[in-house]
Amino acid sequence: MNRRQSFEAIAALSAATSLEAAVPEPIQLHVDLEVDPAKEAELLKNFKQTFRPTISKQPGFVDVKLLKLRNAVAGAAPATRYRLLISFQTEEQRLKWVATDDHQRAWPTIERTLSGKKFTAVLYDIQ
After folding, report:
1. Residues forming beta bridges with residue 82, ordered by sequence position
2. Does the pLDDT at position 16 exceed 60?
């Protein structure tokens, strides 16, 4: 490798490193849902037919899953049986989704299945 190739390699590595630093880390929102037992079937239907198809069209969307607690393998189980996992490329994109008319139509289909409209939401950075 000659001197010029060495400088080009160093410049390319430097550019790649600065690009990686400029890319924001993806996020995942965990929403624990206190679902009314009488409305479990409605929750599943609304998630599959309304919420998932609507959120999956949003810019920056990565994934959405609805988890149902089976059992605790170690430690105490959470108080809620359902957890909604929502992933976006950035927190800003998730916030834009929350502000859309689509969200205003889709989220209430989930929320109306809750006991007293109760849920908790915890935001994580994906490393």
Report:
1. 33, 68
2. no
Question: Which of 20-24, 27-31, 110-114 has the weakest average pLDDT?
Answer: 20-24
Report whether 107 contacts 52 (CB < 8 A).
Answer: no
The C-alpha atoms of residue 123 and residue 111 are separated, in whole angstroms, by: 19
What kind and span of H or E run contains 27? Answer: strand 27-35
* Of residues 22, 12, 5, 25, the one with CA closest to residue 90: 25
Q: Is 73 exposed, middle or buried (0-12, 13-18, 19+ CB in 10 A)?
A: exposed
Sign of CA dihedral 73, 76, 82, 84: negative
Cβ-count burial 84-95 (b if 16+ within 10 Å, e if not): bebbbbbbebbe
Q: What is the mean pLDDT of residues 109-126?
A: 94
Q: Show the domains of the chain with their CATH numbers.
A: 25-125 (3.30.70.100)
pLDDT recorded at residue 117: 76
